[in-house]
Design goal:
The structure holds two protein chains of two kinds. Chain A is mainly β. Chain A has no helices and twelve strands. In chain A, 0% of the residues lie in helices and 51% in strands. Chain B is mostly beta strands. The chains are: A mainly beta, B mainly beta.
Chain lengths: 112, 115
């Protein structure tokens, strides 16, 4: 099966700092890759996705590029805001039936 | 679109009691997933259904856990008897099966505390 490894948190940044959250995966074939975000007291919601090598997913100022050669899908944002404070999950899907494998989650705290 | 609705939001029960968690998926979604989230193990897939039929229950931890989906608009996850180690947040999610990936839509979860 698939597995997803993400950097341990928590990550604490000042507002307007640059964000990187690392994610690597192991999978059979070429999985689709995702970042989900979880705000306090809520369920996860899709942030962005990439379905093939070299694709770049982007949303709300966040970006991630599907790197087949390094099996990575790192999340980046150029200038974080306090409202970005949340838990971020990297995820992979391959094969049928939409069975998604999630990483452990990385908590981001942005301070003013 | 009301989103995925879970009930209750919080459940506190004593060890040995039966617990039933409920989920109403988004109308038109034909996949339904039950996840468990803990600090130690992260997000674990327990079971998922396609068109009300259980497809993969390999993540269900023990026979104490069972899940049903009697119709397209309702699912339950039951724990009987409950134990303190079952304390976690349980999420239900649904998605629409298409040729391309359809994102998971999560409910707000049920926080279960077993004392």
């Amino acid at each position: 099966g698939n597995s997803v490894t993400q950097m341990e948190g928590p990550v604490t940044l000042s507002e307007e700092a640059f964000l990187t959250i690392n994610c690597t995966y192991t999978a059979t074939g070429y999985p689709s890759l995702f970042w989900y975000v979880q705000y306090p007291g809520e369920g996860l919601q899709l942030l962005l996705k990439a379905t093939k090598a070299d694709d770049k997913g982007s949303n709300k100022g966040f970006e991630a590029t599907y790197r087949k050669e390094t099996t990575s899908f790192h999340l980046e944002k150029g200038s974080v805001q306090v409202s970005d404070s949340a838990v971020y999950f990297c995820a992979a899907l391959s094969g049928g039936y939409q069975k998604v494998t999630f990483g452990i989650g990385t908590k981001l705290q942005v301070i003013p | 679109d009301a989103g995925v609705i879970q009930s209750p939001r919080h459940e506190v029960t004593e060890m040995g009691q039966e617990v039933t968690l409920r989920c109403k998926p988004i109308s038109g979604h034909d996949y339904l997933f039950w996840y468990r989230q803990t600090m130690m193990r992260g997000l674990e897939l327990l079971i998922y259904f396609n068109n009300n039929v259980p497809i993969d229950d390999s993540g269900m931890p023990e026979d104490r856990f069972s899940a049903k989906m009697p119709n397209a608009s309702f699912s339950t996850l039951k724990i009987q008897p409950s134990e303190p180690r079952d304390s976690a947040v349980y999420f239900c999610a649904s998605s629409r099966g298409t040729g391309d990936y359809s994102p998971l839509h999560f409910g707000n979860g049920t926080r279960l505390t077993v004392t």
